[in-house]
Amino acid sequence: MLKELYPILIVVGVTIGAVLAYLWQQSRSASNINLALIRLNEQLQFDTPAFLQAAWPLLSQAGLRGIKWKLDWYGAPLEGQSGHAGGTSIDKEIQVAELKLTIRFQQNRHGERRYFDEALIETFLLLLRTDMSIKASVTDVTFSQMSKLTLFLQHDMKNVAQFIQLMADQVAMVPAGKELQMLDYLRTAAPLIRHRADRIVRTLTVGQLHNEPLRTMQLSEELTQLCSLYRLDSTINGAAQVTVPENTLDSALDNILKNYSDISLRNSGIKPFVSITINDNELNVEIDITATNMPPVAHVERLFEPFWSSDPAGLGIGLYQAKQMLEICKGTIAAKQSEAGQLKFKIRIEK
Predict the structure, then answer these.
(1) Which of 87, 147, 213, 331 is the most buried (most CB within 10 A)?
(2) Confidence tier at 8 by pLDDT (50, 70, 90)
């Protein structure tokens, strides 16, 4: 009896082997095409319109009959069609933020080959969705950076405008015989204000510059000029030289010291005295800024929080901007208030 079944079993075994070999070949071919689609997408730098236009040869090689698509690309309609109509239609739609894609696949294979086609279509759609998500994310990040830049510019322009107002008031009220002292002050202050105005104009003209040129600063000189600009009584002990990206450290120090000037203007009769110590260590430079004769600051832990300010007229950007600028310099800043109410800023910059 078993001898009579041997030929049947052999035929069945050969048939199963042939089917497995065929499925393995189909699976390997589909895997190679999927991999080729992924590499093509990488070569096109994940650009959705370019990928849609360039993918048809691989899709055709996989056995699809045709493809037709319509892409709403930030309000601009893009359309494309390849292959032939007919067969079974598969309609798909992808929408990511402002981007919308409708696509129709024409399929003419049946049986197990249809499942390979559907797997290929899902891979293709996944790549398209990923490309659209990447583009939408890059757009969101860019707008976020532009919003931050706009806030920083608004804060810088406000500082310059306030100084011009203050300078105009002081010029109008200068006592007789004190004109030369006012002129000396203006000679010191005008170049600093011009530097800030040039920075604002440049940023408005060409945008935020990456890879800013490096600038070597003598910290004691820079701090002396800033204290003079804001007419702060101060002592500066120590000296150090640092090389940092331009318009970073000076902006940070400017924002910190201007706060003391603002406090003096808001509270008539209060004249902060600023003590600054510079320590030049082997690995970093430390700057300690302490002010006396100042009212205690409420919620010190929120000083670097964006949009928070103890001044009703403040934007809540200055110290947040200072922290951002110091991070570009590979630096850090912290604030601490003693029990007596003295507020101390500690800045550390890596060499």
Answers:
(1) 331
(2) low
4 has a pLDDT exceeding 90:
no
Query: The domain 214-350 is classified under which CATH number: 3.40.50.2300, 3.40.50.300, 3.30.300.30, 3.30.565.10?
Result: 3.30.565.10
Q: Which tokens in the block code for residue 226?
A: 């800033």
What pLDDT was estimated at residue 276?
Answer: 93
Domain boundaries, the chain: 12-137, 214-350
Taking the C-alpha atoms of residue 310 and residue 328, their distance in angstroms, rounded to an integer, is 26
Residues 6+ apart with CB under 8 A from 117: 62, 63, 64, 105, 107, 109
Taking 80 as the threshold, does the pLDDT of residue 51 lie above it?
A: yes
Query: 349, 284 in Cβ contact below 8 A?
Result: yes
Tell me what pLDDT residue 223 has: 92
CA distance 217 to 242: 5
Sign of CA dihedral 294, 299, 300, 302: negative
Residue 11 has pLDDT above 90, yes or no: no
